[in-house]
UniProtKB/TrEMBL annotation:
It comes from Bradyrhizobium jicamae. The lineage of its organism: Bacteria, Pseudomonadati, Pseudomonadota, Alphaproteobacteria, Hyphomicrobiales. Gene3D superfamilies: 1.10.3730.20. The chain crosses the membrane at residues 12-32, 38-59, 71-95, 126-143, 155-171, 183-203, 215-237, 244-264, 270-287. Residues 16-142, 160-287 form the EamA domain. It is found in: Membrane. This is DMT family transporter. InterPro entries: AA-Vitamin_Transporters, EamA_dom, EmrE-like. The keyword Magnesium does not apply. It comes from the Bacteria. It holds the Pfam family EamA.
Amino acid sequence: MNKSLEESAARLAPAIFVVLWSTGFIGTKYVINNAEPLTYLAIRMAFVVVVMAVIAAVARPKWPDRIGVMHSAVAGILVHGFYLGGTAIAIAHSIPAGLSALIPGLQPILTSTIANRWLGERVTPLQWGGLVLGLAGVVLILHDRPMTGEAGWGWLASGVSLISITLGTLYQRRYCNRIDWRAGNLVQYIAVTIFFGTGAWLFETNVVHWTGEFVLALAWLVFALSIGSISLLYWLIRHHAATSVASLFYLVPAVTALMAYMLFNERLDGVAIAGMAACAAAVLLVNRR
């Protein structure tokens, strides 16, 4: 019975991850209305540190050695620091939602190219075909959406976040796979709290409007995203090839578009729906045994 439950959970994990990760774009838009990006992220990570510290105190996991702590800190700065910081800064600088959704859509191609050389993972021609199909699906989903925004820091932040999440997932797989996720995550969140706190102190006014919208969105981002989706991401990285995990990000723009349609009544036409179908087909091809 326990084995059956574990198998069912393993099958559901990718879908749950995609849904949770997609909500991050929605939640970020709500919190950015009430706080500057680095200030909000410093507050978010401080709360996450408290939650992870409680989890670690109860579970008493094996702690990594000094080298493991260093690797965890680097992975945290990449996966949480530059990626979340870049995304939040881009949204704060009026970068459209379409571009924010495109960022994870580009990640599988970049991840597969690097993994092929850095991790020694063999990417088959069928998988390459699936990756290209997924990229085409992302383009269809984002067709006819505004792709203009404030020049400068917003565009730079978008590019930084794409590179950071790609390198971060690969770094996590190569150097942090054997570290207990509870201890490793706590180290990562402590490092990134210092990272965001320093950035907020140096570059922002630190003004926060503690509205109901801000508190609810912040709570969701802390528990569902920073605890739930990140734990699932690292579990998937530990148990699957980097290319297979990265392919899941093709589904994020599609799920985000559906959420925006339901929450904000954004237009969802036949071309975008065809793009969603292409993304789903791409994930099946990349993960085909």
